[in-house]
Amino acid sequence: MTDELVTRHVAELLARERARLDAGIPGAPIRAYDVISGASGIGRYLLLHPRHHTLLRHLLAYLVRLTAPVAAHGVTVPGWWVSTVPNPARPHDFPCGRLNLGLAHGICGPMTLLAFARQAGIRVPGDDEAIASIAEELLTYQDERGQWPGTVALEDIVLDGENDPVEPGLCHGRAGALHLTSVLAHDTGDARLVAQLPRLAERVLDLPTPEHPFRFARENTSSRPRLGFLDGAAGIALALHRYADGPQRTIWEAALMVC
């Protein structure tokens, strides 16, 4: 039943996106290609199961096509340019759309899936060029610390990349920043990233609330402790374990597109 649902969902997603791309309509829906809801996250699941590799190739071909430039507001932008606002309560934040450079909802998800598939020997035409074009776009916005902002407005106004998240969890919080920086630091040996790790770990540990049995509560949302993976104590503990344990990988990281 799961296979049938996944196959149907992928077919519907690809049909919608092919129709949009064939019509020359810019503005890729984030939910079509991201890790949380879209092709990148589904593709990571498909990659784990050889019986799904034919379906996976269709998703990869879509992600490759998504890197082709398009025109939006008279400007040439990557095909993964997003026209919608991230927060409907603030509709004026990105009047001309944006580029999302993140992993959960941004272009790092497609790049990572394409790279993992390539490592597994699953190739589609143009995959190398797609990976390179995404990497080049990311490097355009890299700062002196080896980091880059999560979002870039079409007007090239870069949002402040130094805003420290107040939540502790993996999804949008300090544990997520610690975990991803740990992975990149160990994989690349970049001294700038290595130097950031103790500070990031301390920032995670700044947030415990001793009155809760699992110590971490999601700020401004609930007085009850969160126990889950993405925004709760389980994910925070795993991120701290990864930081303390060094380069050794664990299978849980596959859900975060880092292995």
Your description of this structure?
It holds the Pfam family LANC_like. The chain is mainly alpha-helical and 259 residues long. It has 2 domains: 1-166, Glycosyltransferase (Alpha/alpha barrel), CATH 1.50.10.20; 168-258, no CATH class. It has 9 helices and 4 strands, in the order ααααβββααβααα. It has helices at 2-22, 30-33, 39-47, 53-66, 108-119, 127-140, 174-188, 191-205, 233-245; strands at residues 70-72, 75-77, 98-100, 151-153. The strands form 2 sheets. A two-stranded antiparallel sheet has the order 1-2. It has a two-stranded antiparallel ribbon with strand order 3-4. α1 (2-22) packs parallel to α4 and α3 packs parallel to α5. It is globular.
Reading the helices and strands in chain order gives HHHHEEEHHEHHH
Tally of helical runs: 9
CATH topology (fold) name of the largest domain: Glycosyltransferase
Shape: globular
Report mean pLDDT, rounded to a whole number. Answer: 83
Total strand segments: 4
Q: What's the architecture of the largest domain, going by CATH?
A: Alpha/alpha barrel
Name the assembly state.
Answer: single chain
Helix percentage:
40-55%
| Whole-number total of structural domains | 2
- Uncertain stretches of 5 or more adjacent residues: 157-163
Could you tell me how far the N terminus lies from the C terminus, measured between alpha carbons in angstroms? 27 Å
User: Strand order of the main beta sheet, please?
Assistant: 1-2
Biggest β-sheet description: 2 strands, antiparallel
